[in-house]
Amino acid sequence: MPVDLFDDQTAGLESPPTRIFEITPDDGTDLPFVTRALNAATSGEVRITTLGGDTATLYVAAGAVIPIRASRVWATGTVASGLRGLL
Question: What is the pTM of this model?
């Protein structure tokens, strides 16, 4: 196991993500975790609901990391693929 020189530090929202999970867009189910950021393998629109309850469609460029606290990614209105949630 590699040595983590920062293991005695408290991580904040501006710290680098430490976990990642695949996102399958779904109109009826919230994500298992609220994200710190989103990433997509292919560019396109992503319809999300934020932690604050707002629903909007964002454009995500392939490979870009979008810092957003998303609680749901909708299938309807989402074109980008290969979505990942960063925690």
Answer: 0.91
Report how far residue 57's alpha carbon sits from residue 16's, in angstroms, rounded to the nearest whole number. 25
- DSSP 8-state class, residue 54: -
Q: Which residues of the chain have pLDDT under 70?
A: none
Please name every residue paired with 37 in a beta bridge, in sequence order, or none if there are none: 86
User: What domain count does the chain have?
Assistant: 1
pLDDT of amino acid 56: 98
CA distances in angstroms from 33 to 4, 9, 14, 23, 30, listed in the order given: 24, 22, 17, 10, 8
Q: Say if 81 falls within a structural domain.
A: yes
